From TrEMBL:
<feature type="transmembrane region" description="Helical">
    <location>
        <begin position="260"/>
        <end position="279"/>
    </location>
</feature>
<feature type="transmembrane region" description="Helical">
    <location>
        <begin position="226"/>
        <end position="248"/>
    </location>
</feature>
<feature type="transmembrane region" description="Helical">
    <location>
        <begin position="7"/>
        <end position="26"/>
    </location>
</feature>
<keyword id="KW-0573">Peptidoglycan synthesis</keyword>
<dbReference type="GO" id="GO:0005886">
    <property type="term" value="C:plasma membrane"/>
</dbReference>
<keyword id="KW-0133">Cell shape</keyword>
<feature type="transmembrane region" description="Helical">
    <location>
        <begin position="193"/>
        <end position="214"/>
    </location>
</feature>
<dbReference type="GO" id="GO:0050380">
    <property type="term" value="F:undecaprenyl-diphosphatase activity"/>
</dbReference>
<dbReference type="GO" id="GO:0008360">
    <property type="term" value="P:regulation of cell shape"/>
</dbReference>
<keyword id="KW-0472">Membrane</keyword>
<keyword id="KW-0378">Hydrolase</keyword>
<dbReference type="GO" id="GO:0071555">
    <property type="term" value="P:cell wall organization"/>
</dbReference>
<keyword id="KW-1003">Cell membrane</keyword>
<feature type="transmembrane region" description="Helical">
    <location>
        <begin position="112"/>
        <end position="132"/>
    </location>
</feature>
<dbReference type="GO" id="GO:0009252">
    <property type="term" value="P:peptidoglycan biosynthetic process"/>
</dbReference>
<dbReference type="InterPro" id="IPR003824">
    <property type="entry name" value="UppP"/>
</dbReference>
<comment type="function">
    <text>Catalyzes the dephosphorylation of undecaprenyl diphosphate (UPP). Confers resistance to bacitracin.</text>
</comment>
Length: 280
């Protein structure tokens, strides 16, 4: 069977979108749904699986960029050192809420929340929450003693951030935004909240991808889809490698308001496009 190069090109475009948006607080899933609608790449079981699995490519970029930290903590854990044990337990604690809700409600989320309408709502609500949280908690953290290193995160803070991460199950809310908001509220500074978000993404996205791949009917998989999946994965990885360092540098100097304003405008424009029936 001949390859459909237009379909593969669309997959590459979605991979670029994923790599750019996975770690900034604007919702990668929401953007993939919107761009997918615009270029005709949505609406099938394969594209739903694709949009989850290629996020592993972006997550792999985190593993590469933070490999020294990860490897150090792996060695510390197996040496039964307190620092390494606590680090991985904090990751586990922060992952549990989303893991439980994801297993329980995965099918309902797929059925009812993967649409441009729900993304528009998520954009706007998430943007408002970013503004409120930044004004209320980020500034307070600057005056008070905030957690300035990921090794200082407590189990209580981890569970708080993990609970906020559950908001990201609504496409358009953004896992990055949700966890950073949770981090601010629990007393983390912005850079630490973002880095903790990166580490939490590793088990969450591995679990979500595994669940999608287990449920997918491989009898329907075509050679074009295989190439598209590989291409999207690789592109998401490369683009995320470029984006992450710049995002962390930005967070250390600038407020998040620019992302909130973008989300509000994007949400309103999306609603206008839906009302005009230009997208579904």
């Amino acid at each position: 069977m001949a390859l459909d190069f237009i379909f593969i090109l669309k997959a590459i475009i979605i991979g670029i979108v994923e790599g750019i948006t996975e770690f900034i607080p604007v919702s990668s899933t929401g953007h993939m749904i919107i761009v997918g609608d615009l270029i005709g790449f949505n609406g099938t079981e394969f594209t739903k699986m694709f949009e989850i699995v290629i996020q592993l490519g972006a997550i792999l970029a985190i593993v590469v960029l933070y490999w020294n930290k990860i490897w150090t903590m792996i060695k510390s854990f197996f040496k039964f050192e307190k620092k390494g044990i606590k680090f991985w337990l904090v990751i586990v604690v922060g992952t549990i809420p989303a893991l439980i809700l994801g297993v329980l409600f995965n099918d309902m989320i797929d059925k009812y929340l993967f649409s441009s309408k729900t993304v528009a709502i998520g954009f706007i609500v998430g943007g408002i929450l970013l503004i409120v949280a930044e004004n209320s908690f980020r500034k307070k953290a600057r005056r008070a003693r905030s957690v300035k290193d990921i090794d200082e995160i407590s189990y209580g803070q981890a569970i708080q951030v993990g609970l906020f991460q559950c908001l990201a199950m609504w496409p358009g809310m953004s896992r990055s935004a949700s966890t950073i908001i949770g981090g601010w509220i629990s007393g983390l500074n912005t850079a630490v909240a973002a880095e903790f978000s990166f580490f939490l993404a590793i088990p969450i996205m591995m679990g979500a991808s595994a669940l999608k791949m287990i449920k997918f009917n491989y009898a329907t998989l075509t050679s074009t889809q295989v190439v598209a999946l590989v291409a999207g994965f690789v592109v998401a990885f490369i683009v995320a490698l470029i984006v992450v360092d710049g995002f962390i540098a930005f967070l250390k100097k600038k407020p998040m308001r620019v992302f909130a304003v973008y989300r509000l405008f994007a949400g309103l424009i999306l609603i206008a496009l839906i009302l005009a029936k230009l997208i579904k």
